[in-house]
Amino acid sequence: MMTSCLVGVIFLISGNQEGYQFLMSPEEEPNLGSFDNGKNNILDGCRFVYLDVGTNIGVQIRKLFEPKLYPNASIHQVFDRYFGNLKERTNEGVCAVGFEPNPSHTFHLQGIEESYRSCDWRLKMYTETAVSDHYGTTEFFSDYEFKKYEWGGSILGPNVMKPIYRGMRDEIERRKNSSNNEKSKKDTNAISQRLVNLIRLSYFINNIVATRIIPTSTEKFTKEKVKPPTVIMKLDIEGSEVDVVADLLFSGSFKYLDVAMIEWHQEMMRDEDFRKRTIMLQDIVSRISHFEKLHSQTRPDKKQFKALSFDDETYYDSNFELPKCSKDVDGS
């Protein structure tokens, strides 16, 4: 009875009851690429996986691999607890995947990926790619907060998100005031409409993360205790969590996640229906996490999902020099 009620509530939240698809036809299956440009699973060999969904300019990923640059970042406590310290997680195989729709960040993110790969740090960036509950293309809307790297940019338009509405309103006013400046008009017109790809996050988790080949632990050789295989997801997608998280629940993706740090954006929504569904969904995820905690008391051997109310925005505007390749990672 509880299960049927939960499913019914999620249907209401998703707002996508009609034609909801759980399976994908072969022609829709995406080419997600691989670290070695071959046909292997992109995450084969990864004991620890960090999914940075809505990575912006990649700061959280750099905190994972270069913690010394960010000494006051609170996310370190999460990475260290579930992945081990830098030396431990590097030795055992830590991998990161970033998703970011904003085309303005493409060059920067590709630079991080290239630098990390040259150092044998496993990172895949899906640039100009937004996560969703389906595949396709859509428009990316800027909040025009360029000094903050458009951190409120979203694939949800001005009718739904307050930052997009305010940004577009102010930009229209700015254009009016600079109507005699041809260069200004060209600059703003260039970003007025930007199409990005959509990737179904549940498919990626169920078919890539869940099926990866996990390497044998070095524990039996080093005699040191090693963290179990772990997947951490940070989700900061400016309102799209309504569709994406509901799809993750429907598709059974949460069973492949150990920790989910979801930033909920109901306070930034103009649309009342979106706001209500977001609040309901946040409550469901919180209850599932609480149930898992209680259930683990009688089943300590059971894999436990945990939802963390965690948002580390420290160093959000940092732009440290990319690392020169060094194979000596000691974590000291």
List the helices and strands and how they pair.
Blueprint: H1 2-14, E1 48-53, H2 59-65, H3 76-83, H4 86-92, E2 94-100, H5 106-118, E3 122-127, E4 129-132, E5 136-140, H6 162-177, H7 182-189, E6 194-200, H8 201-209, H9 219-222, E7 230-235, H10 241-250, E8 259-262, H11 272-296, E9 306-308
Parallel strand pairs: 1-2, 1-7, 2-3, 4-6, 7-8, 8-9
Antiparallel strand pairs: 5-6
Helix pairs in contact: 1-10, 1-11, 10-11
A few lines on this structure:
The protein is α/β, with parallel strands linked by helices and 332 residues long. The chain has helices at 2-14, 59-65, 76-83, 86-92, 106-118, 162-177, 182-189, 201-209, 219-222, 241-250, 272-296, and strands spanning 48-53, 94-100, 122-127, 129-132, 136-140, 194-200, 230-235, 259-262, 306-308.
Write up this protein:
This protein is an alpha/beta fold and 332 residues long. It has one domain. It contains 11 helices and 9 strands. The protein has a 6-stranded parallel sheet with strand order 3-2-1-7-8-9, sandwiched between helices. The chain is globular. The chain starts with a helix and ends in a 24-residue tail after the last strand. Residues 1-5 and 7-27 have low confidence and may be disordered.
